[in-house]
Amino acid sequence: MLIDDARRVEAEAKRILAQVNDGSASCEEMREAMPALKSASAMITAAQTSAAASIAGQERHGDDGAEVLANAAGLPIGEARSHIKTAKTLRHLPAVRDAVESGRVTRANAKQLAAAVEKAGAQAVEADGELLAKAESMRPEQFRRVARRWTAEREGDHGASEHARQRARRRVRVWDGDDGMVHLHGEFDAVTGKQIATRLRSEASRMHDADKKNAKANGAGRRSFDQCMADALDYLTAGNGSSGAGRPFADICVVARVDDDTAKLVAELPDGTRLPAEVLDSLTSNAKLTGLIYDRRGKPIWRTESRPTATRAQRQILNARWGGCFHCGTHFAICQPHHIEPVSRGGPTKLDNLVPACWDCHNRIHRDGWQIHKSPDGNHTLHPPDRVTYGPACAPDDPQLFRSGPAQGPNPSPPQEPQRPRAGPKVARAALQRVLAER
């Protein structure tokens, strides 16, 4: 019975693939079919994982089925172990398990839910319907931040336990590969890892920019950014340090705020990783502080005249808000501020009209005509041109959508949010001075 059903599923999958490959299906049909295929794929993965665990239990393999799953599904052994561990952790949470097996929650988000169960307990995760709803609606890179913050709040030690766990796992391994190359792999806690990455990327950016100038002037070859990263590691570990030719940069960006409920200072990295008090004290001993005032909706109160580029202060705030490219997450060191609604078309140079974008995403916008999906919750993303509609075609409740590339044909302006009163620069500066004077 099981074998016959599995073969029927395989036959149907082949038929669907043939329709997609031969071009007989329209874009609309394929777009509507993709959610159903997502659910089917999740169910098949769940069936494979459960079958592997059952086989291992009956035959007493001792590895919970990771080896069986890796061989049968063609997965790396590490990924198979991750599937088995996630399924085992979520087994006693019916609502979460159903959401994962039906495809409403991606595998990556399921892994974050399983981590939350291990740290905060199954009862806390099962009881929080809002957390599950976010797991269903958010992309993995967005939900990872939410899940980490949720876990840190439930542990009650402001991230100290998570930081201690990460510090205990730090390591660097070096070995000779079969291809003659020397391989290096490192794992660090969030703070140390971001400091190392920022130093490397800053030095690599300096090298990459220098190569660009030399290539224009002398026709010399240019290294890729990955090659510059390798050379930067060699350069910095040799004891040379940065030459100082590049722009100043911070080792790490930390966002600190006062919790409304506890009135205590809460510190986080841009990706939402909570920092314990002792780590914050260590970092602030020689840190540069940037004051910022938020409105009640969590948006920075900042007003400037329109200009073609972002100010240095705005860049610092963008770094704190995003930590990297708004779409793909590439590190902020190789990003530049991008206007959602271009200045050339009347867009203001304000924080709510700026996002950091890497070179690749800039090319997608300006060269390929991709468009920015401006989400009300601030989690903006890029969509291909055929994914976006304008004007009357948008439902009133839909997020506002803006085109960043050149206009192509009629493009009715989307309805604008009513302008909320903002504090002027003098008022904001005076308020900040009062806050600092009370410290």
List the helices and strands and how they pair.
Layout: H1 2-21, H2 27-59, H3 66-73, H4 77-90, H5 94-101, H6 107-120, H7 122-127, H8 129-137, H9 140-155, H10 160-168, E1 171-176, E2 182-187, H11 190-218, H12 225-237, E3 255-258, E4 265-268, E5 274-275, H13 277-284, H14 312-322, E6 335-339, E7 354-358, H15 359-366, E8 371-373, E9 381-383, E10 401-402, H16 425-437
Antiparallel strand pairs: 1-2, 3-4, 4-5, 6-7, 8-9, 8-10
Helix pairs in contact: 2-3, 2-4, 3-4, 4-6, 6-9, 11-12
Explain what you see.
With 439 residues, the protein is mainly α. The protein contains 16 helices and ten strands. The chain has helices at 2-21, 27-59, 66-73, 77-90, 94-101, 107-120, 122-127, 129-137, 140-155, 160-168, 190-218, 225-237, 277-284, 312-322, 359-366, 425-437, and strands at 171-176, 182-187, 255-258, 265-268, 274-275, 335-339, 354-358, 371-373, 381-383, 401-402. The strands form four sheets. It has a three-stranded antiparallel β-sheet with strand order 3-4-5. Strands 9-8-10 form a three-stranded antiparallel β-sheet, with no helix packed on it. Strand 1 (171-176) and strand 2 form a beta hairpin. Helix 2 (27-59) runs antiparallel to helix 3, helix 3 (66-73) packs across helix 4 and helix 4 (77-90) crosses helix 6 (107-120). The chain is globular, with a radius of gyration of 25 Å.
